[in-house]
Amino acid sequence: MARAGITVDRLVAAAAELADEVGFDKVSLSALARRFGVKDASLYSHVRNLQDLRTRLALLAGGEMIDRIAAAVAGRAGKEALAAFAGAYREYALTHPGRYAATQIRIDPALVADAPAMRRTAEITYGMLRAYGLEEPDLTDAVRLLRSTFHGYCALEAGGGFNASRTVDRSWDRVVDALHTALTHWPREDDTDRSNRV
Question: What is the pLDDT of residues 72-124, one digit of tens each?
C-alpha cells in the first residue's frame, strides 16, 4: 500500500487484523510498517508510539465488542439478557482473539472516561445488573464476578484447557444458569455484615 493511504483509522484497523492473526502481544509498528510498505518512522506521524497504538486498538475492540453485546441484549431482561450478554461476549472473544486480548489491557483512566465505548459498556452492563435489583457496592462486585468468569472460561476454552467429554457449550449454559442464580440471590453487603457479627 502507498504511504498516502495511511490514516490513524486504517492503521488501527490493520493492527486489529494483525492482532487476530498473530496475537496481540506480537503487534508492532515494524510489522504494520511492512504491511503498508513504508518505513517504521513514517508511522509516528499517526501514532505516538506502540503504547498509543495498542490503546487505540483496545478502544476499537472494546467498541466492537459492546456493539455486539448491545445488539444481543436489546429488549431482553433478567436471565435472557444475561445469556445474550454472555453469548455475545464469548463469541467475540473466540472469533477475535487478538482484539479480545487488547480489551484486557489497562488503559489510562482519563482516556477511559472520555471514551464513548467504555461509557456504553458500563451503561449496558450495569443496566443489565440493575434488573436484578443490585445497587452499589454490589453492582461493582457483580461486574467483577461476571468479567472474571467470562474471561476465565473463554481463556481456558481458547487454550484447549477443557478436555472432558462434556461439551463446552453445555458447560457454558450451566455457568450462565449458575450466574443467574447467584445474581438473583445476591448476598447484600448489609446481610453479610450482620451474619459476620453473629
Answer: 999 999 999 999 999 999 999 999 999 999 999 998 887 777 788 888 999 99
CA distance 77 to 97: 28
R_g (Cα) of the chain, nearest Å:
20
Residue-wise pLDDT for 135-177, tens only, equals 999 999 999 999 999 999 999 999 999 999 999 999 999 999 9
Amino acid at 38: V
Look up cell 449454559; give the residue.
Answer: 173
Residue predicted with more confidence, 194 or 187: 187
Buried b (16+ CB within 10 A) or exposed e, 44-53: eebbeeeeeb
Q: How far apart are CA 43 and CA 124, in angstroms?
A: 35
Instruction: Please name the amino acid found at residue 17.
Output: E
User: What does the alpha-carbon distance between residue 139 and residue 133 come to, in Å, rounded to a whole number?
Assistant: 9
Element (DSSP H or E) covering residue 141: helix 138-158
CA 74 to chain centre: 18
Closest C-alpha among 115, 122, 66, 118 to residue 92: 66
* Measured CA angle at 135 (ends 87, 155), to 5 deg: 30
